[in-house]
Design a protein that fits this description.
By secondary structure, the protein is an all-alpha fold. Helices cover 80% and strands 0% of the residues. It contains 14 helices and no strands. The N terminus is likely disordered.
Length: 301
């Protein structure tokens, strides 16, 4: 090795390491998110849907609050609180509540395919929110993905939307709104602080919801139920978003979004491995079709 090559080697390593680290962190976030539905299904073995969502939010808020205090993070500026309220309503309350209600009647594999449309829904709402004008190819791919999910849903539900499907489509809209506003705030605050403050903002409501839910819904504690609750709170709600935002900061949103394409397919794997569900041939086929549509939007927008 020449002296010149030796001198440039540390620089090359320094460039590559952040990319590898960021990719690993973002992929950990995707894995954490893919386990959300199986963890919720386990949690429903011990808790009612309202209790589960409220307790999940309380535990996640406690973890987030501990991180914020430990790092002595100052309160967000007053102009950020309205946006944080939108994030809290969509990501902390709306999406967990609606998907949990859906999973009382739907399988995790079915929910994974429907919610696999979330990146497209978020992109569409983001375009409307920011005034961006994506290309016609983007909208064509987005509409194709929506058509695939709608066709899959109608076929699985006997030709008509069920209550569980209505919850899932509602979850898509509120979560996309929360993601869109969170993405805007993440330009001014570190991403993990956005979700951290949103969780803390919801803590009074979560505590009240836990008390009411536990008073009216039966509790049957089990290992699966407790593991599902803990993972949904610590793994999916806080840790997943923490490593996701850290990884996205390292490698950028476009590269990170490509990794998220694997999430619906990973959820299908977990639904079989952890829950013993039997997949219909349409589920992985629809998930792959949606994946292709998302990949197209990532390349053309």
């Amino acid at each position: 090795m020449t002296a010149q090559n030796s001198a440039t080697l540390p620089t090359t390593i320094a460039v590559k390491n952040p990319v590898r680290r960021g990719t690993a962190l973002a992929m950990l976030g995707v894995v954490a998110f893919s386990l959300t539905f199986p963890a919720t299904a386990w949690g429903l073995e011990s808790f009612g849907p309202w209790s589960l969502v409220a307790l999940r939010s309380v535990l996640a808020a406690a973890i987030a609050g501990a991180f914020l205090l430990a790092r002595r993070v100052p309160l967000p500026a007053r102009e950020h609180w309205a946006g944080l309220a939108v994030v809290a309503a969509g990501v902390v309350v709306g999406f967990p509540m609606l998907t949990t209600l859906a999973l009382t009647t739907s399988t995790t594999s079915h929910a994974a395919v429907v919610v696999g449309l979330l990146p497209l829904t978020t992109a569409a709402l983001s375009a409307l929110r920011t005034g961006a004008r994506p290309s016609r190819a983007f909208w064509a791919a987005a509409l194709a993905g929506a058509a695939v999910v709608l066709g899959f849903t109608l076929a699985q539900s006997g030709g008509a939307l069920s209550a569980g499907d209505a919850y899932l489509f509602g979850a898509l809209l509120v979560c996309a709104a929360g993601y869109t506003e969170g993405g805007r705030l993440a330009r001014m605050l570190p991403g993990w602080q956005v979700i951290g403050w949103a969780l803390v903002l919801c803590l009074p409501l979560s505590l009240a919801g836990s008390a009411i839910g536990l008073a009216y819904e039966p509790v049957h504690l089990s290992g699966h139920g407790l593991a599902g609750l803990i993972w949904a709170a610590a793994g999916s709600t806080f840790l997943g978003l923490y490593v996701w935002y850290r990884g996205m900061a390292e490698i950028g949103a476009p590269r990170a979004s490509q990794l998220q394409l694997a999430q619906p397919l990973l959820t299908l794997v977990w639904s079989v491995a952890l829950l013993g569900e039997h997949l219909s041939p349409a589920a992985p086929a629809a998930a792959c079709a949606v994946l292709v549509c998302i990949a197209v939007t990532q390349r053309v927008k």
